[in-house]
Amino acid sequence: MCLAVPFKITEINEKEGIGERNGIRRSIRLDFIKEPKIGDYVIVHAGFAIERLPKEQAENACGAAAEVEEELRKIMEEMA
């Protein structure tokens, strides 16, 4: 199964950038995004930004991902 995650671009250095989501920062490649800009929301898969997202859609996806992460944390704590 493949998983793509939404990130907001916070830094750009040519074809590399930094994406942030819920306080998590990751280095991402921007090769597939035409004219990336700081503040853009993108879907990231395997370290590459593969698609630009509208802000509202990205924020909804980030919220859903945070809920899943929280539930997984709870499960892991119960198993410990």
Q: What is the CATH topology classification name?
A: SH3 type barrels
CATH class value: Mainly Beta
Strand content: 35-45%
Mean pLDDT: 91
Q: Could you characterize the architecture of this molecule?
A:
By secondary structure, this protein is α+β, with helices and mostly antiparallel strands. It has a single domain, classed as SH3 type barrels (Roll). The chain is about 30% helix and about 40% strand. The chain has one helix spanning about 55-80; strands spanning about 5-15, 15-20, 25-30, 40-45, 50-55. The protein has a five-stranded antiparallel sheet, with helices on one face. A hairpin with a 2-residue loop joins β4 (about 40-45) and β5 (about 50-55). The protein is elongated and about 45 Å long.
What is the gist of this entry?
The protein is an alpha+beta fold. The chain has a single domain (5-79), classed as SH3 type barrels (Roll), CATH 2.30.30.140.
Task: Outline the secondary-structure elements.
Blueprint lengths: L4 E9 L2 E6 L2 E6 L11 E5 L2 E6 L1 H25 L1
Antiparallel strand pairs: 1-2, 1-4, 2-3, 4-5
Which features would summarize this protein structure in a list?
single chain; 5-stranded antiparallel sheet; 80 residues
